[in-house]
Each structure stands twice: as structure tokens, then as C-alpha cells.
Write the C-alpha cells for this entry.
Amino acid sequence: MTDFHPHVKRLIDGELALADLPPELRAEGEEALRLLAAVDRRPVVLSAAVDARVMAIVRRRAAVPSLWRRLVQPRDVRLRLRPWILAPALAAAAALILLLGRTAPQPAAAPVTVRFVLFAPQAQQVAVAGTFNQWDAAATPLVRTRTPGMWAATLQLPAGQHQYAFVVDGARWVPDPSAPAVDDGFGRRNSVMAL
Amino acid sequence: MSQREGATDGDVVRAVLAGDIERYAELVARYRDRYARYAARILGSADDAEDAVQDALVRAYDQLPQCRDPDRFVGWFFLILRNRCFAERRKGRDVAPLEAAGAVAAADRADHDMETSERQRALQQALLELTPEQREVFVLKHVEELSYDEIAERLGTSVPSLKMRMHRAYDRLREALRDRA
């Protein structure tokens, strides 16, 4: 058994002092404090060249408008429904987005109900992560629907452009094959929707 | 690059968006080092941290029209850097080589005794065995020394979920450090 006692975890959190622990937990508490004492808080200073490199890229970007800048221009909302595309390499199945409950006219800032649906029969858990939840893979889980293998979640999202991807079993990031995608700048594809 | 006295982040962001791109250098100078330690501890390498911060600064420029509150640029930039660090995981390179972890712990070692350095190295290597989410909350609380409330606000999540993540991290760190003992 290697789990710290809950009181010791509160000690590490700074909510209790070592003296607050019962005698039988003191040794475990001291072990926890040794762990904490090994935390390296020394600053990390980057090379001076970072500034020059960033600004060189910024100047090039300013000279040539990027795909991203074109994408974020305001556009009409379009309902996209496509047949699912099963991608064997992904082994994930297809996804689609339904825009629900948007009754015109509404103020531009009104939230839009979005239903995320993913067909992933082998998955044990599915979530959606994107710009609307700070790419937190744990923040927005999908739940199983009555249709075997189908997962869904309904969210209220602000109008505008959002990037997102599905997260299967906490590890595999799957773009939405039914939505347009952009390179995330780090070698992967993010799906994009305009609400 | 000299910074204009008294210019807030919001002032600079609005100037850049209005076309004065050279002023972006002010934001670069302000924030290039601020989260370098966070990135280094998350990625396990000072070199990777430098790449991540540089990429995040460029990406922040690209997405600047999306910064809804220019006066809170720094929080918005942090989320971009966080996304960049987590993208490493998506590339399957979330666990840095051990020598890189050691390099982080060993940097500037002259003013540290060997035992302290060894403990730091062991903990940094153990941190790399956590999930990125666990590692992040540990780094924000115990390296950046933020409170749970501050972390929750920054990451847009709840304190109870953060504590759950953190307490799992404590157990995994204990196990990893015992295995190394």
C-alpha cells in the first residue's frame, strides 16, 4: 500500500501542520515533507534569442495573412450533416455535430446549443476538448446513448469559432471527420466549427 | 526592446491589432520567462520549454484577434502555452528522456549540494511518470505556488476536481520515489 493517508495529503496541501497529525502518521508526514522539499523552484531563463526569433516570425506572419486569420473572419452559420466516415486508421468511427435550438433572430452573443456525437464502440470513455474548455480532456465527458457504441454530450457554447477534438480513453485525440479541420501548429489536426 | 512606460497589456494588444506589430515585442519581453519554469517542469526539459514558449508566443500573435479581454492577455497566453505543452503528449512525446529531466534538475547546480540535486532529480523524473494533467496541477501548486482557488480559476475547473487529481498525483509520486529508493 503506497497511498498517503488523507491527513498526510492535507499536510502536503498546506492545510495541516506536521504537529496536527496523530503520532502514528508522523513518519508518513515526514516522508511527505521530504518529497515537498525536493520541489525545484529555481527559475528557468530562456535564451535571449527567443525574442528575436518570435519577432522575425511575427513580421513574416504580418506580411502574409495566415489561414487562421482567414478562418476567424465572421461567417454565416451553416448546418453541416455528412454521412459518417469510418476511418480504419483511427478505429474510432465518425462524429457529427448537430446545432440545436437556435431560433432566429437572436443576439449575436446568445449561446448556441451544440450536440457532440461520436460513434466509438470500442471506447471506454470519450470526452470533447477544445477552445471552449481550455482543452481540458477531463472537463467535458460524453455519455453513452441508447444506440450501442454511440456517445453524446450537449453543450451551450458562445457564438463564434471553436476548435475541438474528441479524446478517446483519455489518450487518443480524434478530430471530427465531418467538420473542417486546421493544423494546430504542432502537427495535429483540430476540428473547427462556426456557431 | 524598450517598453513604453505605463502601457498595459491591453494597450499593447490593441496597438498590435491596429497594425503596430513591433509593439508585440513588449509582450514577448514581459512574458517570455514568466512561464518558462512551468513549461520546463511539464515537459521535463529546458530546451523543450524554450521551444514551447516560443511557439506559444507566435501562436498568441496569430490568434490575437481572438483575445476577448486584452487586459487579461497573460491568462489567455498561459492557456495557449498549456495547450502547446499538452500537444507534446498528443505527439507521444510526453515523457522526456531521463537525461533531460536530470538536466533540468542539474542546471545551476553549483549552489546546490549533491543530495538536494539528487532529490530534485528523482522528483522531476517521478513527475514525468504522472499524467500531464496530474503533473500540471502539481507544478502549478508546488512549483508556481498558486492556491487551489487560483489554479481553478486559471484552468476553468473546480477545486474538488483539482484536489482529486492532486491527491492521486501524491500517491503516484510516493510510489515512483519508493521504486527508485
User: Anything to note?
Assistant: The mean pLDDT of chain A is 76. The radius of gyration of chain A is 23 Å. The longest helix of chain A spans residues 49-63.
